[in-house]
Write a structure and sequence with these properties.
- The chain is an alpha/beta fold.
- 30% of the residues lie in helices and 23% in strands.
- It contains 7 helices and 10 strands.
- The strands form 2 sheets. Strands 4-3-2-5-6-10-9 form a 7-stranded mixed beta sheet, sandwiched between helices. Strands 1-7-8 form a 3-stranded antiparallel beta sheet.
- Helix 1 runs parallel beside helix 4 and helix 5 runs parallel beside helix 6.
- The longest helix has 27 residues.
- The chain starts with a strand and ends with a strand.
- Bound molecules: S-adenosylmethionine.
Length: 266
């Protein structure tokens, strides 16, 4: 299933999950080879701007807490949580990414105790199982039913629990995915929620991203029952010259690239 074009069209929950599972299965090793050094084997990196949980403390004290990582990739964040003393479960839709997770378990000497293959739109965990749910660019930007994912995060949290997730800053939707000057020119409406869909020769989706405006994200959280505590927009740090896909120093100094939502289940 190789990508031959890009479309802007609807893509439902099942089609999006299938396309992204297949894409991440195929790309898992190359992704880890490209970004693994910056991610670290056992580190919770929130975004290409370089904000790490060690410094950000967005999850609160995790020692002795039940913590779930959503869309964990190779579970670098989950491994950091294990080392911080949390009881950790992590899941991802892609078996390729989970295989990378087991490879990094062996390499780092820190194993994630519960690694599960699942779709973020249906989390296979019981109600109120966790104190903290976290996701660094995992699942949320890729699912058609992000309101449903918010409800799932709420369901698996205990009262007083915290849900923290990072996504591409909604403002980036208006620009081309280009780290250079071309990525500073507005080319589509911020208000157009039509998904970005890569397709193969037969028109089958091979990769899907879903856009929500800032207001959409807030409304989905509130509708699920959350209280929103913060929206962190990490600034591009001086001296940070590394590019990551469309994230670059040039754009990062002018336009936010990431939004991190911090919400609580009352
Ligand atoms: C950019 S990676 C983020 C993982 C990790 N935090 C990192 O930075 O490498 C996105 C992850 O989301 C996962 N993902 C995509 N759609 C998903 C879904 N519907 N449910 C669960 N995980 C999903 C992908 O398989 C991938 O591992």
């Amino acid at each position: 299933m190789s990508t031959s074009g890009v479309e802007h069209r609807q893509a439902g929950p099942a089609e999006s999950a299938h396309a992204n599972r297949t894409w991440w299965d195929a790309e898992a090793r190359a992704y880890q080879d490209e970004h693994g050094a910056f991610l670290g084997d056992a580190d919770l990196l929130w975004c290409p701007e370089g904000l790490r949980e060690d410094a950000a403390h967005l999850l609160g004290d995790v020692a002795g807490r039940d913590v779930l990582e959503v869309g964990c990739g190779a579970a670098q964040g989950a491994r950091w949580l294990v080392r911080a003393g949390a009881r950790v479960a992590a899941f991802d839709v892609s078996m390729g990414q989970l295989r990378e997770a087991r490879r990094l378990d062996a390499r780092s000497g820190t194993a994630v105790p519960r690694l599960v293959q699942a779709d973020g739109q249906r989390m296979p965990f019981r109600d109120g199982a966790f104190d903290v749910v976290a996701s660094a660019f995992g699942a949320v930007p890729f699912v058609a039913d992000s309101a449903g994912l918010m409800r799932e995060a709420f369901r698996v949290l205990r009262p007083g629990g915290r849900w923290v997730f990072s996504v591409t800053h909604p403002l980036r939707w208006v620009f081309a995915d280009d780290p250079g000057p071309a990525g500073l020119v507005v080319r589509q409406s911020y208000f157009d929620r039509t998904p970005y869909v890569e397709v193969d020769d037969t028109g089958t989706a091979t990769y899907v991203e879903h856009h929500r405006t800032l207001g959409d994200r807030v409304r989905e959280l509130v509708a699920a029952g959350f209280v929103l505590r913060d929206v962190v927009e990490p600034e591009w740090p001086a001296g940070h010259e590394a590019e990551w896909g469309q994230w670059s120093p040039l754009r990062g100094r002018l336009v936010p690239g990431t939004a991190v939502f911090v919400a609580e289940r009352p």
